[in-house]
Specification:
Blueprint (H helix, E strand, L loop, with lengths): L8 H14 L19 H6 L5 H4 L3 E4 L6 H9 L3 E5 L8 E4 L7 H7 L2 H6 L1 E4 L9 E4 L3 E2 L5 E2 L5 H11 L9 E4 L22 E3 L4 E3 L17 H6 L1 H12 L20 E4 L17 H4 L12 E6 L7 H10 L6 E5 L4 E6 L2 H11 L3 E2 L2 E2 L1 E4 H6 L1
Parallel strand pairs: 1-2, 1-5, 5-8, 8-9
Antiparallel strand pairs: 2-3, 3-4, 6-7, 9-10, 11-13, 12-14, 12-17, 13-14, 15-16
Helix pairs in contact: 4-5, 9-11
């Protein structure tokens, strides 16, 4: 039991970690500080999942990669459920689908349930995959009988849940289960909860099965205003999801981000590197297609690898286009926008990079308008 006033999430985490270590309740890997703690009896707690109707009805189950959930991953494989495991810190994608080899023995299934097995016996599942998750199993540092949960403080479980909502893989009716030691079930002040925090419907311990009956709404998508630019840079799949939601017209403004509209109709040439000074606005000669498309700098010089982007909305901002390009992985060396002509030119380091950018940008929408994309010199010839 923790004091209910003046306590923070981190206070609760430290209390749990310290207690599990001091009472020798923790199991490998140790120390459990700054982790979802593994504990003695975790496998027994995982076996309680078999008694839940929600598990019997499950076809696809998402289980976090934490060590104390290894028993749940094995249980899912033994019962021939489709097992999805998030990639660590979402560095390489959203999910891995665990695919044991044909005729896998019990020993092979046990290996598939480990972190090594997730690496060796899995295929990646992306945003475009048709996934319908029936059950979500998450690790916790602390949880209350009301269903309020505290993780290790990095926010990945909350983010994974929100991304699954955004891609249509789960709904508000999808049950969420957590596996913890009995000592991790504590009082959590409601004022500590935030709108992006997930809650749990069932708590499984070595001695108890708790149906929380939690009615607090779960997150209904990614709260972009809580996402930092630093996190966006670390998680490519999050950038792709944001680009998709932006094209759907949703507000995807990030934490601390502000928009500044450009002067109407003014041509803007923007060097991409943040550390460089913005270039001066080109003179009238730069408005010609020859200049904008990168004509030879001298006799025999190679053509610049420029991409034409047309049909830009009247109210489109350079920051909107830059953001979409960044999130699609098509960052140019330089962006030149001609506001009056509703077009822009993107300069890439070579023709191969330009062609790859064209492939990525096909079908890109800003607002309600689909942009036209082509090699700049092909567009000039037309």
């Amino acid at each position: 039991m923790l004091p209910r006033t003046g306590v923070s999430k981190q206070d609760i985490r430290e209390h749990i970690w310290d207690y599990m270590e001091s009472q020798n309740l923790a199991d490998f890997p140790r120390p459990v500080h700054h982790r979802i703690p593994n504990f003695k009896g975790s496998y027994l707690a995982c076996q309680n999942l078999k008694d839940l109707d929600v598990f019997a009805r499950t076809q696809e189950v998402k289980v976090d990669p934490d060590k104390p959930l290894e028993g749940v991953r094995l249980l899912a494989l033994q019962n021939k459920k489709t097992l999805l495991v998030p990639t660590p810190r979402l560095r390489t994608g959203l999910f891995n689908k665990i695919t044991p080899p044909p005729g896998a023995t019990k020993d092979i299934l046990r290996k598939c349930a480990t972190s090594q097995g997730v690496r060796n016996y899995s295929v990646p599942i992306g945003l475009d995959s048709r996934v319908l998750v029936d059950l979500v199993v998450v690790g916790s540092v602390a949880v209350s009988e009301k269903g309020w949960r505290i993780g290790k403080g990095e926010g990945y479980a909350d983010l994974e849940y929100a991304m699954m909502v955004s891609m249509g893989a789960i709904s508000k009716e999808t049950p969420v289960v957590t596996i913890v030691h009995d000592c991790q079930v504590v009082d959590i002040p409601e004022e500590l909860l935030e709108e992006h925090d997930i809650t749990v419907d069932y708590i499984l311990t070595p001695t108890r099965v708790i149906a929380t009956g939690c009615e607090r709404p779960k997150p209904m998508g990614v709260t972009w205003s809580k996402i930092s630019r630093e996190m966006m840079e670390k998680i490519p799949v999050l950038r792709r999801l944001r680009a998709r939601e932006q094209q759907a017209g949703k507000d995807v403004t990030l934490q601390g981000e502000h928009r500044h509209p450009p002067e109407p109709g003014r041509q803007q040439t923007v060097p991409w590197s943040a550390g460089r000074r913005p270039q001066d606005t080109p003179g009238p000669e730069a408005n010609s297609m020859e200049a904008a498309c990168g004509s030879p700098l001298g006799e025999g010089a190679p053509l610049a690898a420029d991409v034409y982007v047309g049909n830009l909305p009247q109210d489109a901002r350079v920051s909107d286009l830059k953001r979409a390009l960044r999130e699609l992985g098509s960052v140019p060396l330089q962006l030149t926008r001609e506001g009056r002509r509703h077009r822009a030119f993107l300069r890439y380091q070579d023709a191969a990079a330009a062609q790859q950018a064209i492939s990525c940008l096909q079908g890109l929408r800003l607002g309600t308008d689909t942009l036209r994309v082509a090699l700049a010199r092909q567009q000039r010839d037309k």
